[in-house]
Write a structure and sequence with these properties.
mainly alpha, 5 helices
Length: about 170
């Protein structure tokens, strides 16, 4: 059984993950409008991952006998100037999400909720990956600059990314 404190914090995290999904879907739409389908694909997959993260928290709350309390999701930004501006915002946002996850770990430790702390370790590792991916893309876009050919090549590379549901059971 979850404490009311943990339950409240996990519900807040579900909302934060859904906002992340909404933000990345908005970024994907911006790239789609610019005819950059690969960049749009990369961010649409980010959207799917964030939705999967929200579902992972949702399922955990249910599994532990908690109550789900869904709140409205804030509207995300819809306009950016450049691809670099978007990926810098992705990194900034991932740093924010990392701080939210770290805070959840601190709450779980304070509440002596070892099961929740254990579940959160997956998210700690996931955030390392999320930040590294954003940093890599920032470096690549900075290297390319405004070179249209370079952006086209990166766009084609990003089009190959596919979504792998982290909540799916492994095949038997």
């Amino acid at each position: 059984m979850l404490s009311k404190t943990i339950e409240k914090e996990l519900n807040k995290q579900i909302n934060a993950e859904m906002y992340s999904a909404y933000l990345y879907l908005s970024m994907s739409a911006w790239f789609s409008a610019k005819n950059m389908a690969g960049f749009a694909n990369w961010l649409k997959i980010q959207y799917q991952e964030e939705t999967a993260h929200a579902i992972r928290f949702y399922n955990y709350v249910i599994e532990r006998g908690g109550k789900i309390s869904l709140e409205p999701i804030a509207g995300p930004q819809t306009e950016w100037k450049t691809p670099l501006e978007i990926f810098k915002q992705v990194l900034e946002h991932e740093h924010h999400v990392t701080s939210l996850i770290n805070n959840l770990v601190n709450v779980a430790i304070a509440e002596k909720d070892h099961a929740t702390n254990n579940m959160l370790q997956w998210f700690i590792a996931e955030q390392v990956e999320e930040e590294a991916n954003a940093e890599k893309l920032i470096g690549e876009v900075e290297l390319i600059g405004e070179n249209g050919y370079g952006l086209l090549m990166l766009d084609r590379e990003l089009a190959t990314r596919v979504f792998v549901d982290p909540n799916a059971s492994p095949a038997a």
